[in-house]
Amino acid sequence: MQSQATKKYIRISRRKIARLGKLCSRKRLAEVKPRLAFLPQKSARVLLQTLKSAEANFLVKAPNTNTDALVIERLEINIARGFKRLLYRARGRGNRMNKRASHIHVVLTDEPVVKSSKKATQPKSPRSSATSKQALKRSAAPTLKSPKSSKSPNFSKSPDSSKATQSLKSPPPNTKTAAQAKKTPPSQNPSHS
Question: Could you give the CA distance from residue 66 to residue 74 in angstroms, rounded to a whole number?
Fold first, then answer.
């Protein structure tokens, strides 16, 4: 059997209530109530009120039952319409202040909630396998590159001479460099014919 309770237009932002909502979701009501009672946040008091209301609704439906076995099946914290206010600033300017509000909806049940083990049975997504392949390629790639494959000049000492030599990647044999193409007149250049 289930019971519900809703509290609307609470003048606290959804983010502040959701922090505590994560602690309460899918837990026994007997565990959650003492924790919320001693927390100093305003959102803890509001959440506790909503849980007590859902518990009272359960007792109306099924009187003379033990409420210690109740489990929070679903806890929804949604954004409500808030107020927009203006904070007046110098030189005729103003900053907008959003006075945020939220709704809380709680569903309690007396049946134990079964946690699904989707992580163990789900196959890997194609994206995760692609990223693992890329990681394997990176780890298998050699750390040192040969001077021909590198794009930047490689300054190294050769064993034959004591001078540092610079190895640069040479252009392909059939292509002309930009300086050679400018020197050649257009009538002699075979690429313009």
Answer: 20
Q: Is residue 117 part of a domain?
A: no
Does 131 fall in a domain?
A: no
Is the whole-model pTM more than 0.70? no
* Three-state secondary structure readout of 87-108: EECHHHCEEEEEEEEEEEEEEE
Does some domain include residue 166? no
**What's the token pair of residue 191?**
């690429």
Sign of CA dihedral 116, 108, 105, 14: negative
CATH of the domain at 99: 3.90.470.10
Q: Which residues contact 66 (CB under 8 A, 6 or more apart)?
A: none
Domain containing 99 equals: 2-112
- pLDDT per residue of the chain (193 residues) written in tens, 0 to 9: 999 999 999 999 999 999 999 999 999 999 999 999 999 999 999 999 999 999 999 999 999 888 989 999 999 999 999 999 999 999 999 999 999 999 999 999 998 767 665 555 555 555 555 565 566 566 565 555 555 555 555 555 555 544 444 545 555 666 666 666 666 665 665 655 5
What is the rounded distance in angstroms from the CA atom of residue 58 to the CA atom of residue 67?
A: 8
